[in-house]
Amino acid sequence: MDDAREFDVVVLGAGAVGENVADRASRTGLDVAVVEGALVGGECSYWACMPSKALLRPGDALAAARAVPGADTAVTGPVDVSAVLARRDEVAAHWDDAGQVAWVEGAGLTLLRGHARFAGPRRLVVTTSDGDVTVTARRAVVVATGSVAAVPAALRDVRPWTSREATSAHVVPRRLAVVGGGVVATEMATAFADLGAEVTVLVRGDRLLPSAEPFAGEAVLRSLVDRGVRVSLGAQVTSASRDDDGVHLVVERVTGDDDGVGAAAPETLTVDEVLAATGRLPATEDLGLEALGLRPGDALPVDDALAVRGVDGGWLFAAGDVTGRTATTHQGKYDARVVGDVVAARFDPRPTTDVDDAAVAGGEPLSRAAEAEAGDWSRYRATADHAAVPQVVFTRPQVAWVGRTQAQARDAGLDVAVVGYELGDLAGATVTAADYRGRVQIVVDRARDVVVGATFVGPDVADMLHAATVAVVGEVPLSRLWHAVPSYPTLSEVWLRLLETAGR
């Protein structure tokens, strides 16, 4: 490999976010390289979104069949663990990124295998299997390195699982402790309970899914407990050890005292494996950010064009988990499309006359002028990050929400009305399951008469979320939503019932 190489744009990270950045940035003819030290395709493809949903889907399918009289008698046993794990392996492409590499190369991008560190503005040193290569970006660098699991100090010496080990496990532990109460914790508790593990969930806080409406976490808690999962709220692991008998966790009660730990006698819990699901940290620790005056380990603060604040020259951008703004693949890909378009337009190598001709001819609407004049709802600004972020948790029941919770809306100074409806009261629920249980709640800004948040809890509600996302992003008045007629008998009829409950 050459000792020095130059490109117009260098993207750090070839996960779902980095791939989208590179693809969009190259569309005006910029020469784009992508640097990746692990598998092309990133966390989502191999250790997160895709394999986790492959683990969760069989249990969902069985539960759905068992909820319908006439189909329930055809289900005679639990999930086939070996088949579930084999299918998961297929979904994760057996951790082989050849297909993703072929896509990158087919898109006309240059893939550099290695780890990149900044050596100065627009200059990086990429450590590859063949040695170090100096890479210079003539125009821009985009950091899309994602995030890494945060492991509590008490667990670091016992080789805990993180989401990577949980989603790629080939043996189901007999006893599994899950430390945490968020998305990864609740999804993996659901999946491993389906696979036959004895699962204990240890939550430092007072509820599950603290970012969602309280009723959502309560529904997931009831479901886990009903299925034999032990959930301990207000519990903190203060120390841990591992030996031939397993992992021994010392668990103490969390109180409101200054030290955070109560006076009750600690409990010792012994399990075969422990999963640390206590959040994620931006993957910026070993990027050489100190060479740019930035602090390693911190999230990269960005504006709505995804340019990193505090870096002179407007050449450094970031997208995805690394910014601290988004924590889902879909929102990261949205940011990637924005920053890719910004870079393509801002550093468009074509003469201005060629850009104008392309616009007249109906070509891609990527122009320096359009990017410079971008408004709040422009493709060149990631404004959805502020108040219209969608999230789905594939527990049983599923939880899906977008926008603000009622607490967040009130904290933002909005005068809101909260409207809820039981999904089980719909005709669509009656034909879906004999005992369908679920709830929808919307948060309405009274001043503008628009939905600013919506939460869905129930079987298969994930596919209902996008309608709410459109309503929130589009700021559609309730008076107009009245004319969006839902089909009968479907669960989407809840929109009619919500409007009726709201007095429309």
From TrEMBL:
InterPro entries: Class-I_Pyr_Nuc-Dis_Oxidored, FAD/NAD-bd_sf, FAD/NAD-binding_dom, FAD/NAD-linked_Rdtase_dimer_sf, Pyr_nuc-diS_OxRdtase, Pyr_nucl-diS_OxRdtase_dimer. The keyword Flavoprotein applies. Signal peptide: none annotated. It comes from the Bacteria. One of its GO terms (molecular function) is dihydrolipoyl dehydrogenase (NADH) activity. Its cofactor is FAD. It is an enzyme of class 1 (oxidoreductase). Keywords: FAD, Flavoprotein, NAD, Oxidoreductase. Residues 389-495 form the Pyridine nucleotide-disulphide oxidoreductase dimerisation domain. Its EC number is 1.8.1.4. Residues 7-331 form the FAD/NAD(P)-binding domain. Belongs to the class-I pyridine nucleotide-disulfide oxidoreductase family. This is Dihydrolipoamide dehydrogenase. It comes from Cellulomonas iranensis.
